[in-house]
Amino acid sequence: MNMSSLVRTGAGILMPFLLVFGFYIVLHGHLTPGGGFQGGAVIATAFVLLMVAYSYEIIWERISLEFLKNTETLGLMLFILTALIALVAGLAFFGNWLLGAGGLFGTPVSYGINPGDLNTGGVIPILNIAVGLDVLGAMSVIILTMLFAVRRDA
Amino acid sequence: MFANLPFITAGILIIIGIVTIVTQHNLIKMVMGLAVVEAGVNLMLVATGYREGGAAPIFTNAPSTEMVMPTAQAMALTNIVIGIATTALLLSFILIIFRKYGSADVRDMRRLKG
Amino acid sequence: MKKVLTWIFVAVFAASLLLCAAGLEFGAPAYRDMDDYMIAHGQEETGANNIVTAVVFDYRGFDTLGEATVLFTAVLGIGLVLRTLAMEDEEYEYE
Prior knowledge:
The structure holds three protein chains of three kinds.
Chain A: H1 5-27, H2 36-53, H3 56-62, H4 65-88, H5 124-149
Helix pairs in contact in A: 1-2, 2-5, 4-5
Chain B: H1 5-23, H2 27-48, H3 70-101
Chain C: H1 2-23, H2 33-46, H3 51-59, H4 61-86
Helix pairs in contact in C: 2-3, 3-4
């Protein structure tokens, strides 16, 4: 059952802002409060907003459960792969092999209280993105599966 | 009033959740009680790591270098995610039980039929 | 009889919990060596300004790996449990 057109238009306007805010939280996880889990949960609420506004049939047509499952698996595999590359680099499992090396996320961090630079943190932003993808896929799949199971009652 | 009011509040929250789990017969209300227990445990964890006059352990434009304990907050983060997973699993079990028995009351599902 | 036992259990549990809570000291944690080390050396060792993220993803990376595994297993369990419910309709094709 569709909600009124006011609710649907509002959801359509708010959805991109929710996505941008969620990805901002994920990407700035090593600088500001937040991280992969929180940002992934914020992005999953965007899907919940769509599910509240639109009917079951439209959600079933537009949102692919397979895509979200693949997103979750991709996040988990990226997480484990990033941890495994540290073994190749001669560090321990989960070692920070990008720290201070220059290039991507490799700028040496200035110690003490600083305004923050996005290009620091070594391997931590990559792990943040991986966990963000994982949580985004997992929570969306949970909520969508529960919606599909109760669709006759809802 | 009390110097350790956050710990007492966490204890009261856990007691409310336990009483809800023990006395209610509706499965959804029992899951709500479990969620309240989780909230109490999270409050307990964060209150354990508080240091007098400390700021959040984030160096970006921090007001001072006197900071509260980061490990307790990381444990609270872990607890939140695992709480979400267990709550979702319990609610899907309740969906199955409701579809099978037509009720979410524990007194209606005494019969252990296959 | 059962109700009396329930409330006796609740009373004992509440009394012990509140007694423990009243004995704790707020604002002055006793064992602070590990957290002081993380705050002092976290930036140079992990390169992250956010020490909580440094703890979650670097110092306790295995913990986060297990956490992601728990989330994955929960999704797997929900998919398995609700699949039977969803397959009661024949026109519904899961996957």
